[in-house]
Design brief:
The chain is an all-beta fold. It folds into two domains: 2-100, Vitelline Membrane Outer Layer Protein I, subunit A, CATH 2.100.10; 125-171, no CATH class. The protein has no helices and 13 strands. Strands 9, 10, 11, 12 and 13 form a five-stranded antiparallel beta sheet that branches. The chain has a four-stranded antiparallel beta sheet with strand order 5-4-3-6, with no helix packed on it. A two-stranded antiparallel sheet has the order 1-2.
């Protein structure tokens, strides 16, 4: 578990609290938002956000500054793995290092019959999903992926074409995303 310590009373009393990130629950630090008093280069407040929850605002409340200068350290699909910045007597600036959020395998839902299959997670995304239904439910599913910038045709999972319904093709336009 990673721990972020902070002083609840900010500068006045050494009263520390911890914001813990639980990696056993696949919790990831995904952003930090903060603000500075107008005309100041001192950070007045920050708030940590994970994929599961949000910390309370740490520091001074925004309302006392009118229209503070805000910042956000976040990148879509990425997690924070480290920090950098400048400080003297107070925190002047804060930056972050990011990396891709690792794919996680979710347990398959439904029945346990049939032959297990696994297309893997080494793709950059997918371009099409094919689904064919029959009298008893979904007959097969097939995914076309993007890997190393190239289209990769997937294998059908189930029995293709054993009933009269036509497969439905779902086109995915945003295949540049890793998710």
């Amino acid at each position: 578990m990673d721990t972020i310590d902070y002083d609840l009373n900010f500068f006045f009393v050494p009263n520390y609290m911890q914001f813990e990130i639980d990696h056993k629950k696949d919790e990831q630090l995904v952003s930090v938002e903060g603000y500075c008093k107008p005309g100041s280069d001192l950070i007045q407040g920050v708030q940590f956000k994970t994929n599961l929850r949000i910390s309370e605002i740490i520091g001074f409340e925004k309302a006392i500054f009118g229209n503070p200068t805000t910042f956000s350290l976040a990148e879509d699909g990425k997690k924070i793995i480290g920090f950098h910045g400048y400080s003297m007597a107070n925190l002047n600036s804060l930056g972050a290092y990011f990396t891709w959020i690792s794919p996680t395998k979710m347990e398959a839902k439904g029945g346990k019959g049939g032959t297990e299959w696994n297309d893997g997670a080494e793709h950059e995304g997918f371009t099409k999903i094919y689904v064919q239904g029959g009298c008893d439910g979904i007959q097969y599913i097939k995914f076309d992926y993007v890997k190393d910038g190239q289209h990769k045709y997937g294998s059908p999972h189930g029995v293709k074409g054993s009933e009269s319904t036509e497969p439905v093709s779902i086109l995915c336009l945003n295949h540049s995303s890793p998710y």
